[in-house]
Write a structure and sequence with these properties.
heterodimer; A: alpha+beta; 6-stranded mixed beta barrel; 24 helices; 16% strand; globular; B: alpha/beta; Rossmann fold; 6-stranded mixed β-sheet; 10 strands; binds adenosine-5'-diphosphate; binds magnesium ion
Chain lengths: 843, 258
Amino acid sequence: MGKVTLRGMAAHKLRLALTSLAIVLGVAFISGTFVLTDTLHNTFYALIGSIYDKIDFQVRGVAQFPSQQAAGAVRNPVPESLVSTIKRVPGVEAAEGSVNGYAQFISKTGKPVVTGSEPTIGENFLTDPRLSDLRIVQGAPPTAAHDVVMDAETAKKYHFHIGQSVRVLFMGGNVASFTITGIAQYGSSDTLAGVTFAAFTLPTAQLAFGKTGEFDHIDVLAKPGADKQVVQAAIARALPPGVEVVTGQTVANEQTTSINQALGFFSTALLVFAFIALFVGAFTIFNTFSITVGQRTRELGLLRAVGASRRQVFRSVLGEAAITGALASLVGTALGLLAALGLEGLMSALGFTLPSGPLVFEARTLIVSLAVGIGVTVVSAMAPARRAVHVAPVVAISDRQEATTVRHARWLGLTVASRVLGIALIVLGLVVHQVALVGLGVAAFFVGLAMVLPSIARPLSAAIGRPIASALGTPGKLGRANSMRNPTRTAQTASALMVGVALVSAMAVFGASVSSSATASIDQAIRADLLVTAKSSGSGSFSRSLATQLSRLRGVTASLVVYGGQFQVRQSLEHLKGVPSQGFGPTVDLRVKEGSTAALAAGELLIDSSTAKSDHLSLGSTVRVKFAKTGPGMMRIGGIYKDNALIGSYLVGEGFFVSHFHNPQPGAVLLDAGGGAAGVARLQDAVERVLTNYPTVQVQTRSQFEKSQLSSVNQLLTLVYALLALAVVIALIGVVNTLVLSVFERTREIGLLRAVGMRRAQVRSMVRSESVILSLFGAVVGIVIGTLMGVALVASLSLSNITVPGADIVVFFVLSGVLGLVAATWPARRAAKLDVLAAIATE
Amino acid sequence: MTTRPPETPAGEAEVRPAAQAIELKKTYGTGQAVVEALSGVSVSFGRGAFTAVMGPSGSGKSTLMHCMAGLDRPTSGKSYIGGRDIAALDDTALTELRRDQVGFVFQSFNLVPTLSAAENITLPADLAGRKVDKEWFGYTVGQLGLASILSHRPSEMSGGQQQRVACARALVNRPQLIFADEPTGNLDSVASAELLGILRASVDELGQSIVMVTHDPGAAAHADRVVFLADGKVVDELEGPTAAAVLDRVRALGAKRS
Ligand SMILES: Nc1ncnc2c1ncn2[C@@H]1O[C@H](COP(=O)(O)OP(=O)(O)O)[C@@H](O)[C@H]1O
Ligand SMILES: [Mg+2]
């Protein structure tokens, strides 16, 4: 029996290859994701290790907000005098303090040096080479106030040399000129994953970062041979309250944890799409096996007639699936290495800078890829195998009849059950925040849906095919008839496409709703003509003096300074905004729903309505808060306003804000020119002239601000579309597969058509019509389901607007048709090349 | 067959045959495995005549028909339909020739399963984007007794009905020549007789030219002339055959071979 399986597979290499392709692509995606994230993980890990290996301990302020991740925690600086205290502790060999902050080189063309979205770091150059993570490769350390050491990557990219002068931009818009005395590497690497750095003398750094007499942390080296635990305990005893000492290893672990979290999210996101691709692939496999079992009925009947048991027939079909799955998974796993490079390319095309390193291929990658690939194939072939078992021996002798009956009754209960189960899982998954459950629910829902598709396949293909038939004449009519002749096959083929198109449509509805909600909120909430904000690559805030300067410009009829900072509320770190308690009417409409703006002056907290809803807060509730400067406290909720893209979720009055932050800084300035396009344009010019010295600050009109707010949504959508495209491609492979098998099955019929005068071009046109009808069938169902899913998603997120992007949906529909045409290319060519005599000569 | 045809084909005395083959050769395969299916067949099929082709299995009857009908290309020799050398035609021209000048009735699988009887009958015209002469269609369908099953699919018809629909498809086009390859091979004797009657009548009443491959001496007796093939050659001919005469010739040929 095993021999029969293998012989059969060898005889149908094409079918094998097409079936495999769906699995190959899905598995390649999985393996690629693993390879990429493993590689990134290793690269980061090595980098972090090389930095923190050198130091034994780090002394630093205790994290302000315990809820925050240790790696990026807000910490108060430590006094400079602490260094000499630590040096006196027995067992300490060396100790040196460092400060860091925002410092950005300005290139020779006057543009800031930006490296994707990575930070631009400034620090003091540690004089003790045993502690410094920088290694001078050329020149010398900084000694004078206007000396700087530059990272090798920036020097190379922007052609800076020792002795040249370079301008550096600091927080708040201050720019100063420095002389390059040295070029350095970070550990052994030219760059720390795209981060640029500038190293100054200690006094310069302290001055530039506003930390005179203070350090961010002190790095410590123990004497060789000293008991490190004893030394650490001794240091701890010497420290004032609010300061801690941790090992270098702890710092490294904190960094690794935060990177692992980011990578984990990244790899989960990619794996979700990989599983979507495989899920779609499963439909294709199911369909192929269903068709081939149908086509092999005679052969299977013969096997049964000569004495093969049901179990043997079942094993023969599943055996084929297992071998197909194993081969495809192996190829897919190998292809994953290529996919990793492709994904890396996709990421960097979208503006993420990733460090490079040798590709890492873990055993886990191979095991998971094989298990998933084989599992999906075998499970998909289960139902067709069961059907093969029920082939009666007599069919080997009797003439085969094409079975076109749809068994509604038996399926109905199952499909309803699977959709109900699906929806239940989705809801449960959303409630407990489990992506896997939501995914499982969506999958079950789609499977349930796919099971009812055959019952609507005939009328729907008929309707879709009608205009095609009337436009293309007889070939179109025959294509339409072919798409209707086997509703089960049509439905199964279309199901795969349905899933892809449904997900794309749901995302489109989601994206459009987010966009229109944001636009509406900006339109209604902001009255000012111009918005001055920090660019996203910058620090997020700017100096108060700049804000004052801008609001005094000629032509400004009203202005508003919006402060921004972080605070802890109900155990989570959030952004807080501060505005003056009155006079913001001409620039902002707060749209207070409950309470009043008087709460601003009263030092109460205002929150937006979606936060109120999701956190179950109402007017008059009190919440626990914590500020870095003033510590913990309670605040009363004095107002609830409608969602506001500029303000965000939490708002207080300016007076309260200024007294609760160490260094209160504006996050935005709103300027009104009193209306009139000419006045706005003049004012924008004036603001831009002022901002030439502040490369990190930008001025935007309201519509420009809207566009920039939407650009991240659009970027995300583009990424999701790109990843879903793979699922659609796999669905199309399914269409190709079905068409090829159908063409094979209809060899005689096509020969007959050719004999009585069908031209080759007409044969192609017939196959293409069928393919387009199949694809549009999947697209129509997918669009309807996807739109409903999108609307449900948007409704559950209580966005203010539910928008169905009609134009996009028309594009999806048309595109599906075009893809159907593309999918038909090869099967159509095969059909047209069929020998005329094949019709008459068989038998 | 009592009604008059609405229009009889041009009655002018045409000397040119409906189809003609000159020194037609066809070999399959290469080297050791080469099979010569036709080894120089010269034959002509008269206009308005019903010709039967007989011969033992494997004698090249189907091959001859395929090469003369533009379904296959001969290895050498010439083949004419209505005076046109079909060896010179490219695939599209050959297809259009089959569509417009030739009619076919095969032994089985004559109809497109997704099309109704009526649609199968008008298929060549539809493929050509041509309108079918309604009157002529009605007449043919009436003569073949198909009026009541026009909307049926092939799966809903008996074998005899299917063959009659195939005949109607061939006749409605009024081709130069109809090729029928064992059209009664799968039919019972009643349905066979019906089909042969239809073919005979279309020759007598409409002047249609027909070539029919058959094994059955009784069927061959319906023809005006029988051509005998053996081993890819024309070996005998018989004008105005009767079933007994045909049987004699078949026996004689069989004896010669063994
Ligand atoms: N496609 C083919 N390839 C090889 N040999 C063929 C092919 N078609 C027919 N033949 C051979 O050509 C000879 C004539 O076949 P055919 O014309 O079908 O005979 P008939 O119709 O008289 O039974 C036979 O020997 C047959 O085996
Ligand atoms: Mg034959």
